[in-house]
Amino acid sequence: MEVSEGAVVLDLGCGYGPIGIAAALACPTCRVYMVDVNERACELARRNAAQNGVTNVEVRCGAGFRPVEGMRFDLVLSNPPIRAGKRVLFELIEEAARHLEPGGRLVLVAQTKQGAKSLLRKLAEVFPTAREVEKGGGYRVMEGIAGHDATHGSAGP
């Protein structure tokens, strides 16, 4: 994962925290927010961040973007909840676009056999730039890049 110095990062659906903690360790000048709907996952993410000496993270519990409503991010990272279904996943992609700064990125990882190709198609519908970053071992890493105009990446008033 590429994390720019000073970026505001969101790990969406953080689980026990490996992606957000890795981002925070890779970029000590970044501020990383980690959210998950599951209270136990949030507690484990907090504990894992503390055990790894990571201080530039904040874990918030709640569904989707609700815990960070009104905030904007330079980077949103997610291993999305595939089993939640396409409707939920597509809504998260659309919502991510509204929470990204212009030029911000949404980066997703998913198993190829569990709908990664449909996620890439949705990214291409929502973002002016969408591409597959990496693939291997049955997984794909994809990104959507928000536009630099007001029609993309806007979280609203």
Helix content bin: 25-40%
Number of DSSP E strands: 7
Order of helices and strands: EHEHEEHEHEE
Structural class estimated from helices and strands: alpha/beta
Describe what this molecule looks like in 3D.
There is one protein chain. This protein has four helices and seven strands; from the N terminus they run βαβαββαβαββ. It has helices spanning 18-26, 39-51, 86-99, 116-126; strands at 8-12, 31-36, 57-61, 73-78, 100-111, 129-136, 139-145. The protein has a seven-stranded mixed beta sheet, sandwiched between helices. Strand 6 and strand 7 (139-145) form a beta hairpin. Helix 3 (86-99) packs parallel to helix 4 (116-126).
Which helices and strands occur, and which strands form pairs?
Elements: E1 8-12, H1 18-26, E2 31-36, H2 39-51, E3 57-61, E4 73-78, H3 86-99, E5 100-111, H4 116-126, E6 129-136, E7 139-145
Parallel strand pairs: 1-2, 1-4, 2-3, 4-5
Antiparallel strand pairs: 5-7, 6-7
